[in-house]
Design brief:
The structure is a single chain. By secondary structure, the protein is of the alpha/beta class. It is built from 20 helices and 19 strands. Helix 2 crosses helix 3 and helix 18 crosses helix 19. The relative contact order is 0.10.
């Protein structure tokens, strides 16, 4: 399955409650019949099913009790009318269906869809139905469900995830929290998710990034219902397509002094590569000047790898202030260690009061002291570092990544970039941003060091911490995707991403040149 065409997705991301309110507004205030809306959703999902799996074989639809189940029954009805072999399993007894879901079940039966009551099926019959299916349609649990799925849903989710047939999820995969992207039990692993009315934030962060597969959005011709309903978005979705216009315009007579001087403070003994990767990434991200303050034993290797970086070997923190004076932005923490050397470096960086990006060991050191509030710093924790900064457990962070990013921002100020699939960015007084997309090849040491260098370089050029964080995270992912095309996921290393940065940035240069020429 190819990745989502994110260019076709809206930017506003909503909570599950907000989407339900939008849906209610469309029905109650705009006069759209609820069953008609359900039919539109089902036809949209059926159209995507045929588009992605035109010759896949029998379709098996798993239907729950609410409107999500009603969508499933109508998808099956569409399949039957088009001559496709289809069956429904009524996970919730049909005798308990009500409202539009009951209308949908009756229509499916009228159109000749075999509806099998789950309670009448034994394990062997279920095994046969699942093994024969060419496509599974998950219409079991909708946005109104929270907590771990109970039986019989839990068992059917496990069956969906154990067979080879592709899975189409209606609105969201069963078991996924539509607001937070968390799962308290198992969730369906969909190949394609067709979602309606408003994009749910949980589809793009946490477990949502893994559970949803490709995401297709269908507005169902609700027009301005989202806007008129008055429901505020929970987050804004970012990707390279939406952030590339943030890159600064470069005049023909531009010079290095206009694009910031990034000082990377990193690399205690044995961890010299972390600082070097951050510095090289900063250089590849358009910084006018890049300096690296590291242990003396790393100087030779750093110069050999990247001679454009000005490398300084420091034995003690007292040597750092003279370098800090000329820096526009400081990147502090990669491979810095938590010993005396790292502590001295962090103290000097914080005391300078200069714009800074704190990552890795700088965050670990920060978590052991009284929180430092600052408007001009960017903290870039992964979930483990975030848990230490918040004095909680990692599962608490992952249970609601958006809330965790907000708590970090309230505690430490500035801009927070919470790493992971569906990176979350939070700054004071703003709706959070979520960088949509993920790449499993990035799950290797050093990727965060590359990102911190990129953020520092873009912070120096833009002068805007939030935009620098969002732009860097989206470019970072885009570069990893480019590198994966030749290296694969398992073979991807941080230097591959650095090498791909010029290719990705060049995709925006036509627009930059056009903006300059038209000014």
């Amino acid at each position: 399955m190819p990745p989502s065409d994110v260019s076709s997705l809206p930017d506003a991301l909503f909570s599950a409650d907000a989407v339900r309110e939008i849906d209610r507004y469309v029905i109650d205030q705009q006069g759209v019949d609820g069953f008609d809306l359900m039919q539109r959703a089902a036809y949209s999902a059926f159209r995507q099913l045929v588009r992605h799996w035109p010759d896949q074989g029998p379709v098996l639809v798993l239907c729950g009790a609410g409107n999500n189940g009603g969508d499933g029954y109508l998808v099956a009805a569409n399949a039957a009318r088009h001559g496709i072999e289809v069956r429904c399993i009524a996970v919730a007894p049909t005798g308990k269906l009500s409202g539009d879901a009951r209308k949908a079940w009756r229509k499916a039966c009228k159109d000749g869809v075999p509806v099998l009551e789950l309670g009448d099926l034994g394990d062997l019959e279920l095994d046969e139905l699942f093994s024969q299916a060419g496509v599974l349609v998950d219409a079991m649990l909708g946005t109104g469900v929270s907590g771990a799925p109970r039986e019989p849903f839990a068992g059917l989710i496990a069956r969906c995830n154990s067979v080879a047939a592709p899975v189409l999820a209606i609105d969201l995969p069963s078991g996924l929290n539509a607001t937070t992207g968390a799962t308290e039990g198992d969730a369906v692993k969909a190949d394609l998710t067709v979602t309606f009315i408003g994009l749910k934030a949980g589809l793009f962060t946490g477990q949502g990034a893994a559970a949803c597969g490709s995401v297709v959005f269908e507005s169902l011709d609700t027009g301005d219902g989202v806007t008129l309903s008055g429901q505020p978005p929970l987050a804004h979705r970012l990707d390279w397509g939406t952030t590339r216009s943030w890159l600064p315009v470069r005049a023909v007579n531009a010079h290095k002094g206009q694009f910031g001087h990034v000082l990377v403070v990193a690399g205690d003994r044995g961890f010299g590569g972390a600082g070097l990767m951050a510095a090289e990434a900063a250089a590849r991200s358009g910084a006018g000047l890049v300096s690296l303050a590291t242990r003396p034993e790393h100087v030779t290797a750093a110069l050999a790898r990247c001679p454009s970086v000005m490398v300084h070997g420091l034995i003690h923190g007292s040597e750092l202030p003279s370098l800090l004076e000329s820096a526009t932005v400081i990147v502090c923490g990669p491979g810095m260690g938590q010993g005396a050397w790292g502590q001295q470096m962090l103290e000097q960086v914080v005391d300078s009061g200069k714009p800074r990006v704190l990552d890795a060991d700088a965050l670990n050191l920060l978590s052991s002291r009284v929180p430092i509030l600052a408007d001009n710093h960017i903290l870039t924790p992964h979930p483990g570092e975030a848990a230490r900064l918040l004095d909680c457990l990692v599962p608490e962070v992952e249970a609601d990544r958006i809330a965790a990013a907000r708590r970090l921002q309230e505690t430490y100020g500035g801009t927070i970039l919470l790493k992971g699939a569906g990176t979350v960015i939070s700054s004071e007084g703003e709706v959070v941003d979520i960088v949509s997309g993920s790449n499993p090849g990035m799950a290797t040491g050093g990727m965060g060091d590359v990102l911190s260098g990129m953020i520092g370089a873009l912070y120096g050029q833009l002068g805007d911490a939030r935009r620098a964080a969002g732009l860097a995270a989206s470019v970072h992912l885009a570069a990893a995707n480019v590198a994966t095309q030749s290296k694969g996921f398992m073979g991807l290393i941080p230097s591959d991403v650095i090498d791909a940065l010029p290719t990705v940035f060049s995709q925006a240069e036509v627009g930059i040149m056009g903006s300059r020429e038209g000014s």
